[in-house]
Structures are given as structure tokens and as C-alpha cells.
Amino acid sequence: MLFSGSQVNEVALSDSAANYDRILIRYKDSDGRVCPAIIAKNGESFSFVSIVNTQVGTYIKEQRNTLTGNKITRTGAWQRTLMSGTAESGLYFYVVEVVGYKRP
Q: Are the CB atoms for 26 and 97 separated by under 8 Å?
């Protein structure tokens, strides 16, 4: 395991992603919803995404990230209200677990 906890923005890993074939990242959104895990490789960009339905409306949240060496870095985040089309920016996701996998 390269990380366990709850961290926003930049996550420091205990080892470089370059030492693994793939990295599994588990995360949750700002409302505490656990989202589907992401599989990434060193040097890749990827997004965390969640769709939230409330009494007020439906929202899509996205956070763009990069995985380089021993860091996952947030590069941008937004939340869009589907009913109004307006967007807000901010921190929306927490990395909760990172696991590195090597081929046997």
C-alpha cells in the first residue's frame, strides 16, 4: 500500500509510481460518497468523477489529476449543476487509498 488515509490536493506516496505496472486509487467525493476506483500509470493524467442527485438538482463533480513519481497532484476541479449549467470550482475529492501492483 502506497497511501492510506484521507487527503485532498496533493498526495505523497511512500514509493514512486514508476516502480509499479499500475496504481489503483480509491477516492471519495466531498459528500463522503465512495466512487469507483481509478487505475493509472506513472506519468498519466486522469479524473475523479461523481454524479450527485439532490432535491435541489443533479450535479457532476470532476477533479483532474496527474500521477508522477511519488505524487498525485490535483490540476483542476469543478462542479456543474445540470439544471442551471453553472459551474463552481473547488476541492471535491479525497484520496483514501493507493495500492501499487507489479506483474508477477
A: yes
Question: What is the pTM assigned to this prediction?
Answer: 0.89
User: Of 35, 33, 43, 101, which Cα lies nearest the Cα of 72?
Assistant: 43
Q: What CA–CA distance (Å, rounded) separates 74 from 11?
A: 9
Distance CA 104, CA 101 (A): 9
DSSP characters over 40-97: E-TT-EEEEEEEEE-SS-EEEEEEEEEEETTEEEEEEEEEEETTT--EEES--EEEEE
Contact yes or no for 85/76 (Cβ under 8 A): no
CB 25 within 8 A of CB 11: no
- pLDDT tens-digit series, residues 40-99: 999 999 999 998 887 777 888 899 999 999 999 999 888 887 766 677 777 789 999 999
